[in-house]
Task: inverse folding
């Protein structure tokens, strides 16, 4: 076994990425305080050819050195936009035909393992603040809430870990097999 070279990986250039057909998913970051989390989400969005990222509230926007540390250039390929109010972003996404799902523990959240992603739909997944979670006003506008079951002493996962898990799960479900 040998590690593949960069040339063998056949990576897209940022221009090729922008011209490629995208996976119909947008990620919404609701007041994320860590720029490294934001950068990590950019990198994951790039890896799965997502339509884009919506940065809201006090979530930092590129260009920024702290975002770049984990994004590793993905801010140049992944489309993004900024909204001061997350609620405005959600309303715009719903108007554009997205099913909006928050990742949050609620009385009505659906276990991610049983969530059935529909390949004919567009999705926007909302990830909340590292301490406070998704804002209640934002939750009220969402079509559903998804939850990743956890079995230890902690009640939450890092937002960048959660985003990676959700994107991989939905990608697999919408493509049947990867």
Result:
């Amino acid at each position: 076994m040998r590690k593949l070279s960069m040339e063998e990986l056949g990576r897209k250039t940022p221009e090729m990425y922008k011209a490629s057909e995208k996976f119909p998913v947008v990620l919404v970051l609701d007041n994320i305080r860590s720029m490294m989390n934001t950068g990590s989400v950019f990198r994951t969005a790039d890896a799965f050819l997502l339509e884009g990222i919506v940065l809201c509230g006090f979530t930092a926007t590129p260009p920024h050195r702290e975002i770049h540390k984990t994004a590793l250039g993905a801010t140049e390929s992944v489309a993004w936009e900024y909204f001061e109010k997350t609620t405005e972003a959600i309303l715009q996404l719903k108007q554009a035909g997205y099913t909006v799902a928050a990742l949050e523990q609620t009385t009505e959240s659906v276990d991610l393992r049983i969530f059935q992603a529909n390949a004919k739909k567009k999705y926007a997944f909302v990830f909340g603040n590292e301490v406070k979670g998704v804002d209640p006003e934002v939750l009220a506008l969402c079509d559903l809430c998804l939850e990743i079951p956890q079995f230890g002493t902690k009640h939450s996962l890092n937002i960048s870990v959660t985003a990676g898990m959700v994107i991989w799960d939905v990608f697999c479900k919408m493509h049947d097999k990867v």
Q: What stands out?
A: Helices lie at 6-9, 14-19, 35-47, 65-71, 86-95, 136-141, 159-174. The chain has one domain: 20-174. The first strand starts at residue 23 and ends at 30. Residues 20-174 form a domain with the Alpha/beta knot fold (CATH 3.40.1280.10).
